[in-house]
Specification:
Blueprint lengths: L4 H12 L10 H13 L4 E7 L3 E8 L5 E3 L5 H4 L5 E4 L12 H4 L6 E8 L5 E9 L7 H40 L3 E6 L5 E4 L1 H7 L3 H4 L10 H5 L2 H12 L2 E8 L5 E12 L5 E10 L1 H22 L4 E6 L4 E4 L1 H7 L8 H6 L3 H17 L3 E8 L5 E12 L5 E10 L1 H16 L3 E5 L5 E4 L1 H7 L3 H4 L10 H17 L3 E8 L5 E12 L5 E10 L1 H24 L1 E7 L4 E4 L1 H6 L10 H6 L3 H14 L7 E9 L6 E13 L2 E11 L1 H23 L3 E6 L4 E4 L2 H6 L10 H6 L3 H16 L4 E9 L5 E12 L5 E10 L1 H36 L5 H25 L4 E2 H13 L6 E4 L4 E2 L1 H20 L9 E11 L2 E11 L13 H14 L2 E7 L2 E9 H4 L9
Parallel strand pairs: 33-35
Antiparallel strand pairs: 1-2, 1-6, 2-3, 4-5, 5-6, 7-8, 7-11, 9-10, 10-11, 12-13, 12-16, 14-15, 15-16, 17-18, 17-21, 19-20, 20-21, 22-23, 22-26, 24-25, 25-26, 27-28, 27-31, 29-30, 30-31, 32-34, 35-36, 36-38, 37-38
Helix pairs in contact: 2-5, 26-27, 26-29, 27-28, 27-29, 28-29, 29-30
Length: 1001
Amino acid sequence: MSSTPTSETARLRALESYRLLDTPRESDFDEIAQAAAELCDAPIGVVNLIGDGRQFFKAEIGLGVRETPLESSFCRQALLQEEFLCVEDASRDSRFVGNPLVVADPGLRFYAGALLKTAEGHPVGTVCVLDTKPHELTERQRKGLMRLARQTMAQMELRRSLREQAEQRLLHERILDSATDYAIIATDARGNVTRWNAGAENVLGWSEAEMLGHPAAVFFTPEDRIGARLETEMALALENGSAPDERWHLRKDGSRFWASGELMPLKSDGGDVIGFLKILRDRTAQRATEAALQASEMRYRSLVEVSPQVVWFGDAEGNVTYCNAYWYDYTGLPPGITGEASWMAVIHPDYREPTRRAWLAAATSGRSYEVEFPLRRADGAYRWFLSRAKPVHNADGTLQSWIGTSLDIHERKVAEGRFKALTELAPAIVWFGNPDGGVSYLNDRWYAYTGQTPEQALPTGWGEVIHPDDRDGLTRAWDEARARDSVYDTEARLRRYDGAYRWYLIRAEPMRDAGGAVTGWLGSNTDIHDRKRIEEDLHRAREQLHLAVEATGTGIFDYDLVADVLEWDLRTRAFFGLGPDAPVNLAVYLARLHPDDRARAEAAVQAALDPAGGGAYDITYRTVSPEDGVERWVSAKGQTLFEAGRPVRLIGTARDVTESRRAEQVLRETEERYRLASRATNDAIWDWNLITNHILWNEALQTAHGHALDAAEPTGDWWIGHIHPDDRARIADSIHAVIDGAGLVWSDEYRFQRADGSYASILDRGYVIRDGAGRAIRMIGAMLDITERKRAEEHQRLLTGELQHRVKNTLALVQAIASQTLRGATDVDAMREAFSSRLISLGRAHDILTASSWTEAPIQEVVDGALAVHRGVSPHRIRASGPNVPLAAKPALSLALALHELATNATKYGALANDVGVVDLRWHVVHEGGASRFCLTWSEHGGPPILTQPTRRGFGSRLIERSFAAEVGGQVRLTYAPTGLVCHLEAPLTAMQDHRDEAAA
């Protein structure tokens, strides 16, 4: 069985109706689990309810838990079965490959479960057994498990029924309290009130608190209390089972109301009287209505006098006691004359005796009377009348009187005579059917064909000529038509007078009166024997066609263009989501087409009907069922038949091509997603056919790396050949290790040569596709350019080193400032103030470095900010001069770092390490050959002499080169002269003022 969101919701709703999830164990279910385990000789037996993502064990033997997840359970597979699931050895069953319950040690091997299914067919759980050893289940054990499953469902249904009964009892009590129009009062055996509902308070006025324990006689009138009416009703109720009455009662406010009530005894299970139940309803308004009704009856009698038909009354013995004015006006009889002789005298002589017999029979039996007869008018002419009468009975069923009417039906009788003449001339058998199933009329053609007489045929003898094999079907169709007041339409074989049978089409339409009630059926029987023989031949041909259609899964459509009748077989109807009895026409066809296909389909039909064309109809369209929204693709082919240049019929076939269309759509969507994803990403996506060594690239190969797609050789060798020589062997080994092994995913980093000869750092990821034998046949991957990320990582590494160095230098600088501040100091306060100001200058230098990382700064501010802390000690010892050239953020930062390192080095080892050394800082711009260059010279004098050249470069030297030479593209020359260090920095002016890389700074 399949599972959809809708069916799963219905299944969970059905399970919830039993309210058994997360309930305590019950012995009835425990015994079923025990019986299942013993029946199948298994250590584990379970009564399992399958909820949303979990299974709850209402009963379990040998398991020890009450709930487990559903995803790895055996019962999840049981839900896919109709009735039963048996797994003899799960380790050999493909459905449980990798299942943790199977691969565990010890793992489950055997499972057998019978579904718990509701009456509506919803599977809500199982009765199952399990074992860690394989089993073979006998037929007896299988049937036993299914029997236990049915017993479990019976227990579940029983509990639900008992719960619903309890809820129903509570509902009844609430209904009782909500019946505010009825006063419902319970008393004990002595008549004292024990229960007083809200209706009693509403009707009588007293509240339950006021009445409990008090005699119920309080709401009886004083005269009834004196006459002990309540005690009388209690005695009658004990004697007869109830004591109904209608009488006046009292309300709390003293007002009276007319009530209809009944008193009934309340008895215990043993039959002892424990009290009484009194039910009252205020009938004051109804009593007034009855009085009004009596007045209405008087008005009715007045209306009878002016009725346009004869109205008459009779006594119980059948004597006419009253006729209205119409009777006397029509017959000319003296008013007030009602005797039998008078009314018999005006009936046509041929109908007097039959009419008299019919009336006496009705008066004697008490049944309704109906007869038709000609009635003489005052001028001597006769007109047909329909006379009807109904008996009037007392409340006890005794016949009290008769009321009748006589209606002029002369025009109808004349019309019937004409109709009879027409039926005699008709070529078919014509008949009238009665609502009771009998036939009241058959024309002469029936008697001529069957040889029956009217006495033999009417009212039910006509059934004797029906073929025995057709009689039951015809009778059922006739009974159904009468029950539904619908058209009667059937076919049957009728026996001819010579014993031969011929097929007849038997049809009848219901005849209705002015109120729509069916009064009979007008029918006809038409000889279709020759047509049936042709139909049988056609049926055989259609059967052969049907077999061919079934074999190919094809539907048939046939459009009669002359009669405008469209016919579809069941399969074609199914394509449009229609049942076998649903009406079909061109409007239905167009309405159930997909809106986007409707105009195209209608145009295809019109083209097929065009005599100027070939009449071919060939189209594929979508149908949509409004009932469930299911969409199907249908391919229809047909041919139009023309007569005298006019289309008369379009016939053809239809096939459901939904699956193939969906597959095509999925393929197109997949290709489109791949194409859009390829365009949306900067990754170079490659698709490598490992069998042919052919490789396909997306457009990013050109946009990211400059290789034109038509220029790149579409082979794996070309790709491998563009990997950096130092990475090529490593990448070839890593990728073939995955291809030649059993892996599916490959990922590695390497350098890839761009079209301009430069190399990009690449993170490449690939996925291997293998055939059924596990052989790698294809590999798809994407090359992510991580050059910027690599550069950022290197930059981060440099900044980390610089930070470490900066911290050390800062501490050294602070130490030097402290040393210089303390050197020769005699005043502590002055020393503290000088030391604080120098530390503030150091912080200011850091501020300018930070600011120059993000904005353009004049070189003078950069120099001042970088050297402020050192000038703070001896401002005249650092002499700086040059044009105030604006510097971009990144070059400014590089220069500040270089000056800071030079000044820090001078403070620790150079010209600023003593009291007399000085530094000359000069910069200028040189214009040569159309290109301007920025030059800066740092010269130290008077510091400790440099006697030997340094044997190694310190971090400060390297930082100067990297921060200025590498970042700006300039040149750095460090000269260690005996008089002091000379540093010369030179770079293109454009590089010092270029803002393109400011974000990087």
